Amino acid sequence: MSGYIYMHRKEKGRIVEGYVPWDEAKIHVLSHVIHYSSGVFEGIRGYITDRGVAIFRGRDHYRRLVRSAKIYRMFAQDYMPPEIAGDGIPPVERVVDYFMRITGELIRKNDLYNRAKEVKEKGDMANPFVYIRPVIYRGYDVGDDPILKPPLGVNPLGNPVEWFIAVFLWDDYLGTEAIEKGADVITSAWAKNAPSTTPFMAKGASNYATGQLAKMESVLSAFFKDYDKVRRLKMGDSLTRDDLFLPVESIQLTVSGHVAEGTGENIFVVIYRDGDPQRPIIYTPPIAASILPGITRDSIIRIAKDEGYEVVETMIPREMLYIADEVFFTGTAAEVTPIRTVDGIPVGAGKPGPITLHLREIYTKLVRGQIEDRYGWVEYVE
Ligand code: PMP
After folding, report:
1. Nearest C-alpha to atom 2 of ligand 1 is from which residue?
2. Separation between Cα atoms, residue 281 and residue 273, nearest integer Å
3. pLDDT 10s per residue in the chain (382 long)?
4. Which atom from ligand 1 is nearest to the alpha carbon of 64?
5. What is the number of the ligand 1 atom nearest to the C-alpha of 296?
6. Angle at 120 (CA atoms; ends 118, 125), nearest 5 degrees
7. How far apart are CA 108 and CA 86, in angstroms?
8. What domains sit in the chain, N to C, each tagged with a CATH number?
9. Pocket flag, ligand 1, residue 285 (CB < 6 Å)
10. Which atom of ligand 1 is nearest to the CA of 333?
C-alpha cells in the first residue's frame, strides 16, 4: 500500500500541480535546491484522536513557511496557482488556507487515520502520529534545448519556485525512553550559524548543515558514568549499556558560546529560586540567539505564563545547563522532552523535574484534544 504526495512544479513555464503517486514524486538532479540548499520547509504534527486527526497549530506552521520563503525572495505569487495568487501579492491568510485545505485532503487520501490505528494494533509503531512535511524550493524547468545553459549558477532567480507536501506516519522522535526518563545530550562543538550568515528565522535547509554535524556528534558519542570504573578498565573487560550515558541529541551554542537550541528543538532551563521548586524561574534563549522561533516554544511560554510561572527570555551561558534544576526540549516532534544529563553531568536529580512534567502534562493533553483547547490551536481533519 502506498500513498500520494501533492506537488507544484513548472514545466516549460506552465504550472503542473496535483497528486502524484508516492514512487513518482521526483525532481530533476539539476534542481537548484540540491546544489545550493535553496529550500525552506515545515514539520507539522497531527495526532490520532477519537475526533480524527488533530493538527496542532497548522496555520502557524504554514505562516512560518510563507515567511521563510519570503526571506529567500520566494514570493507567494511565484508559487501559488493563479486562482490563489490573484494579480498582486496574495494575502498570507489565503495562501495558508490553501495549504491547510490540501493538507487535510492529503491526510484523507492517504487514509492515515486508519493506517495509524492498524500499525499500532500490529505493534509496528508504539505511538504513530501524522507528520506533515511541506517544502518550498528552487527547482529546475527543463527547457526545449536543455543542454544549452541550464540555470545552475548560484543566482536562484532564474529557477522556478516549486513545492510539495508529503504526509506520513512517524513514531517518537528522540526515543520512548528519552521522553519518559529524560534524554542524555551533549553540547556540540558545531555552533549555530551567526546571525549575519544564514537567517535563522527562516526554517531553511541550509540551517541544518551544522545541525546534521552536531546530531551525528551526539548519537555517536557516549559518556562513562563512573570515573573509577573507567580507570580500572583492562583489555578484555566488557562494558554494558548501564555503564554509559548514550546521548540522543546535541545542544548547539551561538558563535559567542551562549545556549541556542537542539538540532530540532528549542530549549528551556528551570532554576528554583532559593532552591524552592514552588518558586521556579523558567529561562529560554531569545529569538536573537540564532534560534528557530519554535511554535512549541511559543505554546509552552504561553501555557507556562497562564499557569503563573515566571518566564524569562535571556541569553544563557553553557554552564547554566550544568547547574540548572531542570532542562527540557520543546518541538513539534519532541513535544516536551525532559533532559536528564548534559555532557554526562546530571541535571538536578538526574530525572525529569516537576515543572517539566507539569508543562508536559498540559501540552500533551492539549495537543491530543484531551483537555479544553482555550487557545484555538487544534484543528481536526475528520
Ligand atoms: N529548532 C529547530 C532547529 C528545529 O528544527 C525545530 C523543529 N521544527 C525547532 C526548534 C522546534 O520548532 P517547532 O516547535 O516549531 O517544531
Report:
1. 264
2. 7
3. 689 999 999 999 999 999 999 999 999 999 999 999 999 999 999 999 999 999 999 999 999 999 999 999 999 999 999 999 999 899 999 999 999 999 999 999 999 999 999 999 999 998 899 999 999 999 999 987 788 888 899 999 999 999 999 999 998 767 777 778 999 999 999 999 999 999 999 999 999 999 999 999 999 999 999 999 999 999 999 989 999 999 999 999 999 999 999 999 999 999 999 999 999 999 999 999 999 999 999 999 999 999 999 999 999 999 999 999 999 999 999 999 999 999 999 999 999 999 999 999 999 999 999 999 999 999 999 8
4. 15
5. 14
6. 120
7. 28
8. 4-170 (3.30.470.10), 176-370 (3.20.10.10)
9. no
10. 16
Instruction: Put residue 219 in one of left, alpha, beta given phi > 0 → left and psi -120 to 50 → alpha.
Output: alpha
C-beta of residue 174 within 8 angstroms of C-beta of residue 334: yes
Enter the pTM of the model. 0.96
**Ligand 1: distance of its center to the CA of 289 in Å?**
14
Q: Is the CB of 68 under 6 A from ligand 1?
A: no
Dist CA 359 CA 7 (whole Å) = 38
149 annotated active-site: no
Q: Which of 12, 70, 181, 203 is catalytic?
A: 203
Tell me how far the alpha carbon of residue 276 lies from the centroid of ligand 1, in angstroms.
Answer: 31
Instruction: Assign residue 58 a region (left: φ > 0; alpha: ψ between -120 and 50; beta: otherwise).
Output: alpha
Task: Tell me which residue has its CA closest to atom 3 in ligand 1.
Answer: 264
* CB of 295 closer than 6 angstroms to any ligand 1 atom: yes
Instruction: Please tell me if the CB atom of residue 297 comes closer than 6 angstroms to any atom of ligand 1.
Output: yes
Q: Give which of 291, 282, 281 is closest to 259, Cα–Cα.
A: 291
